[in-house]
Amino acid sequence: MPLSAVLLDTHVLVWLLSGNNRLGSKSRSLIQDAANAGVLYLSAISPWEIAVLVSKGRLILAQDVGLWIQAALALPGIQLAPLSPEIAVASARLPGIIHPDPADRIIAATTRQLGAVLVTADGLLIDYGAAGHLRAFRAEF
């Protein structure tokens, strides 16, 4: 059976690249398997989110944010999922009770569009998955 696509929430990418131990071993295995299969994705909104966090001083990187993002996107097996007009519209029409943050809504819509599993530690997105609106995998596992 082919591996499902996997989409990384923004903080999961940061945890992965920084070696943060909050990212669990099952998540690391899932991410590695998806990368090896060529089905690992990052939403196009995530580079923007990272740049905003850096500009507000809420995230400190060891190098310039632009270079960090370029290096992240050059990792073997990772693909940038574009922010298409369909995803933009879908993010405003998501069913059920969903995250109020526009970036997280775009990530949720991208996950649904790809038919992917979202790796996240965001409780609101985990709850949205538990309600049956997307497939979510708790990043700490």
What does this structure look like?
With 141 residues, this protein is α/β, with parallel strands linked by helices. The chain has a single domain, classed as 5'-nuclease (Rossmann fold, 3-Layer(aba) Sandwich), CATH 3.40.50. The chain is 50% helix and 13% strand. It is built from 7 helices and 5 strands; from the N terminus they run βααβααβααβαβ. Strands 3-2-1-4-5 form a 5-stranded parallel β-sheet. α7 links the parallel β4 and β5. α5 crosses α6. The longest helix has 13 residues. The radius of gyration is 14 Å and the shape is globular. The model has no long low-confidence stretch (mean pLDDT 96).
For the record, the count of structural domains works out to 1
CATH superfamily: 5'-nuclease
For the largest beta-sheet, the strand count, sense and barrel status come to: 5 strands, parallel
Provide mean pLDDT, rounded.
Answer: 96
